[in-house]
Amino acid sequence: MTDRKERLNMALTREFLEGLGLTANQAEGVLNACAEDGEWQTRYEALKREYDAYRAKVEAKAKEDAVRAAYRALLKTARIDDKRVDAILRVTPLDHLTLNEDGTLADAEQLLEAIRREWADFVVTEETRGADVATPPSGGAYTPTRAEILAIRDTAQRQRAIAENHELFGF
Predict the structure, then answer these.
(1) Helices 108-118 and 24-77 sit at what angle, rounded to 10 degrees?
(2) Full residue range of the structural domain in which residue 106 is found
(3) Could you give the CA distance from residue 137 to residue 139 in angstroms, rounded to a whole number?
(4) pLDDT in tens, 83-107
(5) pLDDT in tens, 37-69
């Protein structure tokens, strides 16, 4: 297309245009319009290059954000402490990771195992323990009232209950 334009511009001379019957002012107007067209083409090409660079930058940022979100989800799957996820994301290079069609990371199982090995100190483990039956908890034990203790008929049991709950009797 550039060769064609150059041939067109070479063919458009004042003499040629005046030979077609145009006045000098008309020939000057046609030549100025052609020159402006060349300037517009140059500006268009510069803006297109700038736009293409911007679009590539935005697409790269969107890909990076998608990979970061998928890796964050994988860290949570590995049960990494929520307080440590951002720190891990800051120090982990993500440029080598790729996404599948469904938005998950490729080779997720291998990555998960690597995360569990590399960041084992940050994996949250929860376990449920039963009460220690050798020393049962004393909190929440039933405390009888003064009237209930005085109602005990056996003297030895009543005295033992008074001794265990002496604060009820002012001792």
Answers:
(1) 60
(2) 2-122
(3) 6
(4) 888 888 888 888 888 888 888 888 8
(5) 667 778 888 999 999 999 999 999 999 999 999
How many distinct structural domains can be found in the chain?
A: 2
- Report residue 45 as tokens: 């090409």
Which residue intervals of the chain are DSSP H helices?
2-11, 14-19, 24-77, 82-91, 108-118, 146-150, 155-164
Cβ atoms 168, 145 nearer than 8 A: yes
Same domain for 95 and 65: yes
**135 confidence band (pLDDT: 50, 70, 90):** low
Say what the pTM is: 0.50
123-143: b or e for each residue (b if 16 or more CB lie within 10 Å)? eeeeeeeeeeeeeeeeeeeee
Asked if residue 101 is part of any domain, the answer here is yes
DSSP 81-125: -HHHHHHHHHHS--TT--B-TTSSBTTHHHHHHHHHHHTGGGB--
- What is residue 27's three-state secondary structure? helix
Residue 97 lies in a domain: yes
CA distance 30 to 12: 9
pLDDT at 19 over 70: yes
